[in-house]
Protein backbone atom coordinates (compact mmCIF):
# COMPACT_ATOMS: atom_id res chain seq x y z
CA UNK A 1 0.00 0.00 0.00
CA UNK A 2 1.45 3.34 -1.04
CA UNK A 3 1.88 5.98 1.63
CA UNK A 4 0.34 9.42 1.56
CA UNK A 5 2.79 12.20 0.78
CA UNK A 6 3.36 15.61 2.32
CA UNK A 7 5.01 18.01 -0.13
CA UNK A 8 6.78 21.04 1.28
CA UNK A 9 6.94 24.55 -0.06
CA UNK A 10 10.14 25.62 -1.78
CA UNK A 11 12.90 26.26 0.77
CA UNK A 12 11.06 24.63 3.67
CA UNK A 13 13.18 21.48 3.51
CA UNK A 14 16.08 23.23 5.27
CA UNK A 15 14.93 22.19 8.75
CA UNK A 16 14.83 18.53 7.68
CA UNK A 17 18.40 18.75 6.39
CA UNK A 18 19.19 19.84 9.95
CA UNK A 19 17.25 16.79 11.27
CA UNK A 20 14.60 18.78 13.11
CA UNK A 21 11.79 16.31 13.95
CA UNK A 22 8.76 18.54 13.32
CA UNK A 23 7.03 19.74 10.16
CA UNK A 24 4.80 22.75 10.78
CA UNK A 25 1.57 23.25 8.86
CA UNK A 26 2.81 26.50 7.32
CA UNK A 27 5.64 24.67 5.58
CA UNK A 28 3.33 22.37 3.62
CA UNK A 29 2.52 23.03 -0.04
CA UNK A 30 0.02 20.19 -0.45
CA UNK A 31 -0.83 16.70 0.77
CA UNK A 32 -1.68 13.72 -1.44
CA UNK A 33 -3.43 10.51 -0.45
CA UNK A 34 -5.82 11.84 2.23
CA UNK A 35 -3.87 10.72 5.34
CA UNK A 36 -5.68 10.32 8.65
CA UNK A 37 -4.23 11.44 11.97
CA UNK A 38 -1.48 9.04 13.02
CA UNK A 39 -0.83 7.66 9.53
CA UNK A 40 2.75 7.17 8.38
CA UNK A 41 3.52 9.60 5.54
CA UNK A 42 6.42 10.43 3.26
CA UNK A 43 7.72 13.99 3.31
CA UNK A 44 8.95 15.31 -0.04
CA UNK A 45 10.57 18.53 -1.17
CA UNK A 46 8.93 20.82 -3.67
CA UNK A 47 11.07 19.02 -6.28
CA UNK A 48 9.75 15.57 -5.23
CA UNK A 49 12.94 14.62 -3.38
CA UNK A 50 12.36 12.15 -0.52
CA UNK A 51 13.21 13.78 2.81
CA UNK A 52 11.77 11.79 5.72
CA UNK A 53 9.06 9.56 7.17
CA UNK A 54 6.75 10.64 9.95
CA UNK A 55 3.33 10.48 11.56
CA UNK A 56 0.69 12.84 10.25
CA UNK A 57 -1.38 14.85 12.72
CA UNK A 58 -3.89 17.66 12.85
CA UNK A 59 -2.50 20.88 14.33
CA UNK A 60 0.34 23.35 13.99
CA UNK A 61 2.83 20.46 14.08
CA UNK A 62 1.57 18.51 11.08
CA UNK A 63 4.19 15.74 10.92
CA UNK A 64 6.38 14.25 13.66
CA UNK A 65 9.37 12.68 11.94
CA UNK A 66 10.73 9.26 12.92
CA UNK A 67 13.18 8.50 10.10
CA UNK A 68 15.27 10.53 7.67
CA UNK A 69 15.81 7.58 5.33
CA UNK A 70 13.25 5.62 3.31
CA UNK A 71 13.35 2.51 5.49
CA UNK A 72 10.86 -0.09 6.63
CA UNK A 73 9.19 0.99 9.88
CA UNK A 74 8.80 -2.46 11.41
CA UNK A 75 9.62 -4.46 14.55
CA UNK A 76 13.34 -4.43 13.77
CA UNK A 77 13.30 -0.63 13.35
CA UNK A 78 11.75 -0.06 16.75
CA UNK A 79 13.90 -2.69 18.44
CA UNK A 80 17.04 -0.94 17.20
CA UNK A 81 15.77 2.42 18.44
CA UNK A 82 14.74 1.19 21.90
CA UNK A 83 17.93 -0.86 22.27
CA UNK A 84 19.96 2.27 21.51
CA UNK A 85 18.12 4.28 24.16
CA UNK A 86 18.55 1.47 26.71
CA UNK A 87 22.26 1.15 25.96
CA UNK A 88 22.82 4.87 26.51
CA UNK A 89 21.26 4.65 29.99
CA UNK A 90 23.48 1.70 30.86
CA UNK A 91 26.62 3.39 29.55
CA UNK A 92 25.82 6.48 31.63
CA UNK A 93 25.74 4.28 34.73
CA UNK A 94 22.19 5.27 35.57
CA UNK A 95 20.71 1.76 35.79
CA UNK A 96 22.06 -0.14 38.82
CA UNK A 97 20.02 -2.98 40.33
CA UNK A 98 20.69 -2.23 44.01
CA UNK A 99 21.13 1.52 43.61
CA UNK A 100 18.89 3.07 40.94
CA UNK A 101 15.84 1.32 39.47
CA UNK A 102 14.05 4.58 38.56
CA UNK A 103 14.93 6.03 35.17
CA UNK A 104 13.53 7.39 31.92
CA UNK A 105 14.05 4.98 29.05
CA UNK A 106 12.44 6.99 26.23
CA UNK A 107 12.46 10.78 26.22
CA UNK A 108 10.47 11.80 23.18
CA UNK A 109 12.40 13.59 20.46
CA UNK A 110 15.62 13.21 22.43
CA UNK A 111 15.53 9.47 21.70
CA UNK A 112 13.86 9.63 18.27
CA UNK A 113 10.35 8.95 19.57
CA UNK A 114 8.41 12.20 19.12
CA UNK A 115 5.29 11.99 21.24
CA UNK A 116 6.34 9.20 23.63
CA UNK A 117 7.73 8.99 27.17
CA UNK A 118 8.64 5.69 28.84
CA UNK A 119 9.63 5.67 32.50
CA UNK A 120 10.83 2.54 34.28
CA UNK A 121 10.19 1.81 37.96
CA UNK A 122 11.87 -1.44 38.97
CA UNK A 123 9.99 -4.10 36.95
CA UNK A 124 7.30 -1.84 35.47
CA UNK A 125 7.44 0.51 32.48
CA UNK A 126 4.99 3.38 32.20
CA UNK A 127 4.22 4.44 28.62
CA UNK A 128 2.80 7.92 28.11
CA UNK A 129 1.76 9.00 24.62
CA UNK A 130 1.34 12.54 23.32
CA UNK A 131 0.62 11.72 19.66
CA UNK A 132 -1.65 9.36 17.76
CA UNK A 133 1.01 7.90 15.47
CA UNK A 134 3.00 6.09 18.15
CA UNK A 135 -0.14 5.38 20.19
CA UNK A 136 -1.49 3.27 17.35
CA UNK A 137 1.52 0.94 17.54
CA UNK A 138 1.65 0.74 21.34
CA UNK A 139 1.22 -3.04 21.30
CA UNK A 140 4.25 -3.46 19.06
CA UNK A 141 6.30 -1.07 21.18
CA UNK A 142 5.28 -2.93 24.35
CA UNK A 143 6.52 -6.22 22.87
CA UNK A 144 9.86 -4.64 22.00
CA UNK A 145 10.22 -3.19 25.51
CA UNK A 146 9.80 -6.65 27.03
CA UNK A 147 12.41 -8.04 24.63
CA UNK A 148 14.99 -5.35 25.30
CA UNK A 149 14.74 -4.26 28.95
CA UNK A 150 16.19 -6.63 31.55
CA UNK A 151 13.80 -7.65 34.33
CA UNK A 152 10.76 -5.88 32.88
CA UNK A 153 7.53 -7.81 33.58
CA UNK A 154 4.71 -5.23 33.34
CA UNK A 155 3.82 -2.29 31.09
CA UNK A 156 1.24 0.29 32.10
CA UNK A 157 -0.11 2.86 29.67
CA UNK A 158 -1.04 6.25 31.16
CA UNK A 159 -2.14 8.58 28.38
CA UNK A 160 -5.67 9.69 29.20
CA UNK A 161 -4.45 13.13 30.26
CA UNK A 162 -1.70 13.57 27.64
CA UNK A 163 -3.23 12.61 24.29
CA UNK A 164 -4.67 15.47 22.20
CA UNK A 165 -8.26 16.10 23.31
CA UNK A 166 -9.62 15.66 19.78
CA UNK A 167 -7.52 12.61 18.89
CA UNK A 168 -9.56 9.99 16.97
CA UNK A 169 -8.78 7.20 19.45
CA UNK A 170 -10.31 5.96 22.68
CA UNK A 171 -7.69 6.21 25.41
CA UNK A 172 -8.00 4.42 28.74
CA UNK A 173 -5.20 4.01 31.26
CA UNK A 174 -4.32 0.43 32.14
CA UNK A 175 -1.88 -2.45 31.83
CA UNK A 176 -1.12 -3.62 28.31
CA UNK A 177 1.38 -6.27 29.39
CA UNK A 178 1.47 -8.07 32.74
CA UNK A 179 0.40 -6.50 36.04
CA UNK A 180 2.07 -4.93 39.07
CA UNK A 181 1.26 -2.84 42.11
CA UNK A 182 2.43 0.61 43.16
CA UNK A 183 5.73 -0.04 44.89
CA UNK A 184 9.00 1.31 46.24
CA UNK A 185 11.85 1.75 43.77
CA UNK A 186 15.38 3.09 44.20
CA UNK A 187 17.08 6.34 43.24
CA UNK A 188 20.73 6.58 44.28
CA UNK A 189 19.96 4.05 47.01
CA UNK A 190 16.98 5.97 48.45
CA UNK A 191 13.52 4.40 48.51
CA UNK A 192 10.61 6.20 46.85
CA UNK A 193 7.04 4.95 46.70
CA UNK A 194 5.84 5.18 43.10
CA UNK A 195 2.12 5.33 42.41
CA UNK A 196 1.72 5.42 38.63
CA UNK A 197 -2.04 4.93 38.95
CA UNK A 198 -2.87 8.25 40.66
CA UNK A 199 0.46 10.13 40.83
CA UNK A 200 1.41 13.14 38.72
CA UNK A 201 3.16 12.51 35.39
CA UNK A 202 4.13 8.82 35.48
CA UNK A 203 4.37 8.81 39.28
CA UNK A 204 7.66 10.57 40.05
CA UNK A 205 9.75 13.52 38.84
CA UNK A 206 12.77 11.61 37.58
CA UNK A 207 14.27 14.65 35.88
CA UNK A 208 15.53 16.17 39.15
CA UNK A 209 17.77 13.24 40.14
CA UNK A 210 21.11 14.99 39.45
CA UNK A 211 19.88 18.23 41.01
CA UNK A 212 18.75 16.40 44.14
CA UNK A 213 22.25 14.92 44.34
CA UNK A 214 23.78 18.41 44.05
CA UNK A 215 21.53 19.64 46.84
CA UNK A 216 23.25 17.16 49.15
CA UNK A 217 26.46 19.20 48.89
CA UNK A 218 24.70 22.25 50.38
CA UNK A 219 22.45 20.64 53.00
CA UNK A 220 24.61 19.74 56.00
CA UNK A 221 23.55 21.74 59.05
CA UNK A 222 21.04 23.81 57.04
CA UNK A 223 17.41 24.65 57.67
CA UNK A 224 15.83 23.48 54.44
CA UNK A 225 12.52 24.42 52.83
CA UNK A 226 11.36 22.21 49.96
CA UNK A 227 8.61 24.20 48.30
CA UNK A 228 6.23 22.43 45.86
CA UNK A 229 7.70 19.27 47.39
CA UNK A 230 5.38 16.68 45.76
CA UNK A 231 6.80 13.31 46.94
CA UNK A 232 9.66 14.87 48.88
CA UNK A 233 12.58 13.94 46.65
CA UNK A 234 14.71 16.94 47.59
CA UNK A 235 13.71 16.49 51.24
CA UNK A 236 15.05 12.93 51.38
CA UNK A 237 18.41 13.98 49.96
CA UNK A 238 18.67 16.96 52.34
CA UNK A 239 17.98 14.79 55.40
CA UNK A 240 20.51 12.19 54.27
CA UNK A 241 23.14 14.92 53.93
CA UNK A 242 22.68 16.07 57.52
CA UNK A 243 20.27 18.98 57.33
CA UNK A 244 19.34 20.49 60.69
CA UNK A 245 15.67 20.40 59.72
CA UNK A 246 13.66 19.91 56.52
CA UNK A 247 10.17 21.25 55.89
CA UNK A 248 8.23 20.14 52.81
CA UNK A 249 5.38 22.35 51.60
CA UNK A 250 2.84 21.50 48.90
CA UNK A 251 -0.69 22.71 48.27
CA UNK A 252 -1.75 19.07 47.87
CA UNK A 253 -2.41 17.13 51.07
CA UNK A 254 -1.98 13.92 49.05
CA UNK A 255 1.53 15.03 48.07
CA UNK A 256 2.44 15.62 51.71
CA UNK A 257 1.18 12.12 52.56
CA UNK A 258 3.48 10.68 49.90
CA UNK A 259 6.38 12.75 51.23
CA UNK A 260 5.84 11.49 54.76
CA UNK A 261 5.74 7.92 53.44
CA UNK A 262 9.08 8.39 51.68
CA UNK A 263 10.67 10.08 54.69
CA UNK A 264 9.60 7.21 56.95
CA UNK A 265 10.87 4.61 54.48
CA UNK A 266 14.35 6.14 54.47
CA UNK A 267 14.59 7.63 57.98
CA UNK A 268 12.21 5.71 60.27
CA UNK A 269 13.61 7.30 63.44
CA UNK A 270 14.10 10.88 62.22
CA UNK A 271 12.25 13.78 63.85
CA UNK A 272 13.80 16.46 61.63
CA UNK A 273 11.06 16.58 58.98
CA UNK A 274 7.73 18.39 58.86
CA UNK A 275 5.21 18.28 56.01
CA UNK A 276 2.84 21.19 55.47
CA UNK A 277 -0.08 21.50 53.05
CA UNK A 278 -0.30 25.22 52.23
CA UNK A 279 -0.08 27.73 49.38
CA UNK A 280 3.52 28.60 48.48
CA UNK A 281 3.22 32.39 48.48
CA UNK A 282 1.38 32.40 51.79
CA UNK A 283 3.93 30.13 53.46
CA UNK A 284 6.97 32.01 52.19
CA UNK A 285 5.60 35.35 53.33
CA UNK A 286 5.02 34.08 56.88
CA UNK A 287 8.49 32.60 57.44
CA UNK A 288 10.96 35.42 56.97
CA UNK A 289 14.55 34.54 57.85
CA UNK A 290 13.81 30.93 58.87
CA UNK A 291 15.33 28.89 56.04
CA UNK A 292 18.90 29.18 54.74
CA UNK A 293 18.41 26.61 51.94
CA UNK A 294 15.25 26.85 49.81
CA UNK A 295 14.10 24.78 46.82
CA UNK A 296 11.51 26.26 44.44
CA UNK A 297 10.37 23.57 42.00
CA UNK A 298 6.88 24.66 40.87
CA UNK A 299 4.72 22.95 38.26
CA UNK A 300 4.88 24.38 34.75
CA UNK A 301 3.62 27.97 34.81
CA UNK A 302 3.14 27.91 31.01
CA UNK A 303 2.35 25.03 28.68
CA UNK A 304 1.63 27.20 25.64
CA UNK A 305 3.16 30.36 24.18
CA UNK A 306 -0.07 32.24 24.89
CA UNK A 307 0.72 31.89 28.61
CA UNK A 308 4.38 32.93 28.38
CA UNK A 309 4.12 36.50 29.69
CA UNK A 310 1.97 35.44 32.62
CA UNK A 311 4.40 32.62 33.42
CA UNK A 312 7.42 34.94 33.43
CA UNK A 313 5.62 37.26 35.83
CA UNK A 314 4.80 34.26 38.01
CA UNK A 315 8.43 33.16 38.20
CA UNK A 316 9.51 36.71 39.04
CA UNK A 317 6.94 37.05 41.81
CA UNK A 318 7.70 33.63 43.33
CA UNK A 319 11.45 34.14 43.37
CA UNK A 320 11.14 37.69 44.67
CA UNK A 321 9.07 36.53 47.66
CA UNK A 322 11.64 33.81 48.39
CA UNK A 323 14.69 36.07 48.05
CA UNK A 324 13.12 38.81 50.16
CA UNK A 325 12.47 36.39 53.00
CA UNK A 326 15.75 34.44 53.02
CA UNK A 327 18.49 35.34 55.53
CA UNK A 328 21.93 36.55 54.51
CA UNK A 329 24.37 33.94 53.18
CA UNK A 330 21.63 31.49 52.14
CA UNK A 331 21.21 29.33 49.04
CA UNK A 332 18.27 29.10 46.66
CA UNK A 333 17.65 26.26 44.18
CA UNK A 334 15.08 27.60 41.72
CA UNK A 335 13.60 25.86 38.66
CA UNK A 336 11.31 26.15 35.67
CA UNK A 337 9.97 23.08 33.87
CA UNK A 338 7.97 25.11 31.33
CA UNK A 339 9.17 24.14 27.85
CA UNK A 340 8.04 27.44 26.32
CA UNK A 341 10.20 29.38 28.80
CA UNK A 342 13.80 29.60 27.57
CA UNK A 343 16.87 29.56 29.81
CA UNK A 344 17.43 33.23 29.06
CA UNK A 345 13.85 34.23 29.83
CA UNK A 346 13.87 32.32 33.12
CA UNK A 347 17.18 33.88 34.12
CA UNK A 348 15.87 37.36 33.34
CA UNK A 349 12.80 36.72 35.52
CA UNK A 350 15.00 35.66 38.43
CA UNK A 351 17.28 38.66 37.79
CA UNK A 352 14.26 40.96 38.03
CA UNK A 353 13.20 39.22 41.24
CA UNK A 354 16.62 39.75 42.82
CA UNK A 355 16.72 43.39 41.71
CA UNK A 356 13.26 44.07 43.11
CA UNK A 357 14.23 42.37 46.37
CA UNK A 358 17.33 44.60 46.51
CA UNK A 359 19.61 41.68 47.38
CA UNK A 360 23.07 40.82 46.11
CA UNK A 361 22.81 37.45 44.35
CA UNK A 362 25.43 35.21 42.72
CA UNK A 363 24.84 32.28 40.38
CA UNK A 364 26.70 29.20 41.66
CA UNK A 365 25.31 26.60 39.24
CA UNK A 366 23.15 26.52 36.12
CA UNK A 367 21.09 23.35 36.04
CA UNK A 368 19.29 21.20 33.50
CA UNK A 369 17.85 17.71 33.08
CA UNK A 370 19.85 14.46 33.52
CA UNK A 371 21.30 12.10 30.93
CA UNK A 372 18.19 9.92 30.74
CA UNK A 373 16.31 13.01 29.54
CA UNK A 374 18.60 13.67 26.55
CA UNK A 375 18.17 16.64 24.23
CA UNK A 376 18.64 16.09 20.53
CA UNK A 377 21.17 18.63 19.30
CA UNK A 378 18.81 19.19 16.37
CA UNK A 379 15.81 19.81 18.67
CA UNK A 380 16.78 22.34 21.37
CA UNK A 381 13.10 22.61 22.35
CA UNK A 382 13.64 19.36 24.25
CA UNK A 383 15.65 21.16 26.93
CA UNK A 384 12.64 22.01 29.07
CA UNK A 385 14.12 21.89 32.60
CA UNK A 386 16.28 24.79 33.66
CA UNK A 387 17.45 25.84 37.08
CA UNK A 388 19.78 28.11 39.01
CA UNK A 389 21.59 27.71 42.30
CA UNK A 390 21.87 31.17 43.84
CA UNK A 391 23.85 32.53 46.75
CA UNK A 392 21.86 35.23 48.54
CA UNK A 393 23.97 37.75 50.46
Describe this entry's structure for a reader:
- The chain is built from ten helices and 20 strands.
- The protein has helices at 14-17, 75-91, 132-135, 138-148, 209-219, 233-240, 253-266, 280-286, 308-325, 343-357; strands at residues 4-8, 22-24, 28-32, 40-44, 50-56, 61-67, 102-107, 116-121, 124-129, 154-157, 174-177, 183-187, 190-194, 223-227, 245-250, 273-277, 293-296, 330-336, 361-367, 386-392.
- It has three domains: 4-67, Archaeosine Trna-guanine Transglycosylase, Chain: A, domain 4, CATH 2.30.130.10; 75-194, 2-Layer Sandwich (Transcription Regulator spoIIAA); 207-392, Rossmann fold (3-Layer(aba) Sandwich).
- A hairpin with a 2-residue loop joins strand 8 (116-121) and strand 9.
- A seven-stranded mixed β-sheet has the order 16-15-14-17-18-20-19, with helices on both faces.
- It has 393 residues and is α/β, with parallel strands linked by helices.
- It starts with a strand and ends with a strand.
- The model has no long low-confidence stretch (mean pLDDT 95).
How many helices? The count is: 10
Radius of gyration: 22 Å
What is the CATH T-level topology of the largest domain?
Rossmann fold
Query: How much helical structure, as a percent, in the residues?
Result: 25-40%
- CATH-scheme architecture of the largest domain: 3-Layer(aba) Sandwich
Q: Please indicate the count of domains.
A: 3
Shape: globular
How many strand elements?
20
- Note poorly predicted spans: none
CATH structural class of the largest domain? Alpha Beta
Give the overall pLDDT as a whole number: 95
Superfamily (CATH H level) name of the largest domain: Vaccinia Virus protein VP39
Order of helices and strands: EHEEEEEHEEEHHEEEEHEHEHEHEHEHEE
Spatial order of the strands in the main sheet?
16-15-14-17-18-20-19
Main pleated-sheet profile: 7 strands, mixed
Structural class by SSE content: alpha/beta
What's the N-to-C terminus distance?
67 Å
Amino acid sequence: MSRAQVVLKSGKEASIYRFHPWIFSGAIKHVTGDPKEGDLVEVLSNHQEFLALGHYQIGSISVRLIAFENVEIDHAFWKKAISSAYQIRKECGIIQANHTTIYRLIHGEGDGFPGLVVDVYHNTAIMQFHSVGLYRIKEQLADVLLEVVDGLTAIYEKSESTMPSKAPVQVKDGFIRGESQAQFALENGFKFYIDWFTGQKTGFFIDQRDNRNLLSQFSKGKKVLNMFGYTGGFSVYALAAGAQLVHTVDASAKAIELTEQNIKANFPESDKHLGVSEDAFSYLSKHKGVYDLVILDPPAFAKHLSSLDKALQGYKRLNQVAIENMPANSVLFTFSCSQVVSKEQFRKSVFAAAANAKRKVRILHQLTQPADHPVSIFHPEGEYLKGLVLYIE
